[in-house]
Design a protein that fits this description.
Helix content is 42%, strand content 22%. The protein is an alpha/beta fold and 575 residues long. The strands form four sheets. Strands 8, 9, 10, 11, 12, 19 and 20 form a seven-stranded mixed sheet that branches. A six-stranded parallel sheet has the order 15-14-13-16-17-18, sandwiched between helices. Helix 12 packs parallel to helix 13. The longest helix is centred in the N-terminal third of the chain and has 82 residues. The termini are far apart.
Amino acid sequence: MEGSCTKGVLNHLDVLKVQARSRRCQPQQQQQQEQEQQSRVKELKAKVAALRLQREQLSAEIQTSKELRSSLDKLQEHEGEEEMDQESEESQLLRLMTRHTQLKDLLNAHRLIGGYDVVKTREGKGVCVSLATAYEGVYLDTYNLQIDLKPTVRIVRHNIPPVIPLNSLAEQHDMKRDLKTFLDALHRHLNAFAGRKQQLKLVKPQLPLLRSNEMHPILQSQRFLLRNTRLTAWHRCCSSFAKMMRAVCVDVYGGPENLLLRSVPRPRLREGEVLIKVHAAALNRADLLQRRGLYPPPPGESDIIGLEVAGTVETLGSGVKMNWKPDDKVMALLCGGGYAEYVSVPEELLMPVPSNLTFCQAAAIPEAWLTAFQLLVSVAQLKEGEVVLAHAGASGVGTAAVQLVRLLGGVPLVTAGSPEKLKVAEELGAAAGFNYKRESFVQGVHDFTGGKGANVILDCIGGQNWEQNVSSLAMDGRWVLYGTMGGRTVEGDLLGKLLSKRGHLLSSLLRSRSLQYKADLVKAFSHRVLPYFSDQPASLRPVVDSTFSLEDIADAHRHMEANSNVGKIVINVIS
């Protein structure tokens, strides 16, 4: 009896222990359930946010579709009004069917973010790849790279922006085994870069206007290895919107052979800009550097080479305040875009073409003469009676500097590499010239100045001339550096020798200056210098060495690289 009671008590105690343990576990289970519920809530919120984003994107795409449909309908109506009377019923029907097909392709393709083509190289040892980028369904840029497949897989040359981790992508996606995966990844990076760049511009991008056969001029039309076929439809269906022009483009940095003449969209005017129909453009040393990838245009400016043009006013943008009107003859300073049939320019950078000058002569003025004027007046602050030594005295800037020094009351001296060039400089007003290939210009400067030296030195050579420049400099003289054709590195006691002369080392570039700076410079030049081009007889004249057609732009670059020109090399855009 006593044993059974004890056993019952023990059983009861076991039950109580189990219940107590159960009560202790309940809070933990409740806490776990709450955490699971919170996790599910977070997942649901993320899904809702993603759905909202998709809805917004779809709404934007629908709006874009409506705009594209409206634009195409307007184009169709416009073309119909002009051509309906001259077309047969059969041709009318064919045209309308074509427009309908283009509209269908356009609406199907407007969500496209670009594409790429891959074709064999001429030698068959590799492939050339052309990748198109876009932002919000709008074509932006084309990039190219050449990949050798034999004997090893490697990237030979390209114009991919440095911010794209090209080598890392090639290793990460194993370019050697799966080229398509590598190109897909590269294309995604380029599109992301294009989107960031376009957002920074804060302007609405242009419609895609390139035709597919104009998009890949460096590629050969042979058998396609890989292809995003939708890209062709995208360019085909949008090409009817184009207002095209011819322009010189560079897809791959390198020699003159990489200059390519192709059709591209005309520039769209921003507020305060004027569209110029270019008749002539002039070459500058900066053009050669940009072609090699060493001197990119300022952010937001045209990638097309060319810093100065002359032509006629084609169209005025909104907000233009000055008294320009269509067909006015003008010349302009540019940040880029000169090697083309049309270029957009802020109205403040326009100057009227002097009445006695041709377009070719006028094109030789803006960049070269404004550079020389800036160096002498704004940077060196030349005073009357001072001696100026100008290196490359027969170049565009050199021939301008000689004449400006005379106009400002100074005494010009020059260096050049041949007797012919020295003769031209002396005819323009140089008091003396020194052939740096045959003699020391230091001795010549000291002989001319009675040992005092030059008050101002205009130097586009740089590194290799530094010691001779300091030796030629007068006490308290100004050494103005605006180029480094002779190298950028310096070895020796530059600072000590410059300090002993109490010399001023100044440097300046024009292209990277602000719009306001350039506008003030153009205004001052127009007031103080431009009238002297029109005097009878004119006291100032641009020196033109030679002219080339736009089709022969590569030969023009070779001519400049040979350093054989005296004065400016000019491109006839409209012959």
